[in-house]
Write a structure and sequence with these properties.
- This protein has about 220 residues and is α/β, with parallel strands linked by helices.
- The protein has a single domain, classed as Rossmann fold (3-Layer(aba) Sandwich), CATH 3.40.50.
- About 30% of the residues lie in helices and about 30% in strands.
- The strands form two sheets. It has an eight-stranded mixed beta sheet, sandwiched between helices.
- It is globular.
């Protein structure tokens, strides 16, 4: 499938798939969306506590890198697991301008290390941040009561509705610890209903720039 690099409205880049008219991040602003959805409405709930995170869609590594930068500020301990069925090539990842756009040139090697590290193994990216990348289809996730927080960042419902199904959200519910939280940029009625059927408590929240609403689900 053809792939191209696009610059989003906040100046940060993303990978665009023209055959699907779908991008890895919001065209309204890749970095803005990541901060709004996953940090402001996800990680910030844990207020410096040790946290175990599952990312559904490791992709370009943007969410991972931003989480690392946030954790570095307070030395928050993060155990991060990124799941990706079709990994981005290292050369492609290097074309992303996240290091410069985030004013994080001192972490250039960290971003590279995140993409160069081997799959299926835990790597200590820093003294307080560990990363495990799993090359895995989301349907094959079988963790139970492991994660405090899930970043659900799959491709959109329009192109891959099967990733937003009741079956998938049942797996997410099982993977979370009690009172664990799932955050996603999406806010479709069928997605909310699937979450509710699993047993989640679901909140609609203001969306990132360019999107009216997003969802946050809590395991109760």
């Amino acid at each position: 499938m053809k792939r191209e690099i696009l610059t989003t409205n906040d100046g940060s880049t993303t990978i665009h798939l023209p055959d699907w008219d779908e991008s890895y991040h919001s065209k309204h602003g890749a970095i803005q969306e990541a901060y709004h959805v996953f940090i402001k409405n996800g990680l910030s709930l844990f207020d410096g506590k040790q946290v175990t995170i599952l990312e559904i869609g490791f992709g370009t590594g943007l969410n991972t890198f931003i989480t690392y930068l946030e954790a570095k500020k307070t030395n928050q301990i993060i155990d991060y697991v990124g799941v990706e069925a079709y990994p981005v090539l290292f050369d492609e990842a290097l074309k992303m301008n996240y290091v410069s756009e985030l004013n994080a040139t001192d972490a250039t090697e960290i971003f590279s290390k995140m993409h160069q590290s081997s799959w299926e193994e835990e790597h200590f990216i820093s003294s307080n941040f560990s990363l495990t990348k799993r090359k895995q289809f989301f349907q094959d996730i079988s963790d139970e009561n492991v994660f405090d927080l899930i970043y659900f960042d799959a491709f959109g419902f329009r192109v891959q509705p099967e990733l937003w199904s009741l079956e998938i959200f049942k797996k997410m519910y099982k993977a979370l610890k009690s009172n664990g939280v799932l955050v996603t940029y999406a806010c479709r009625g069928s997605i909310k209903r699937a979450m509710l059927e699993c047993g989640f408590k679901v909140q609609k929240l203001p969306g990132a720039p360019g999107k009216r609403e997003m969802l946050r689900a809590t395991k109760i």
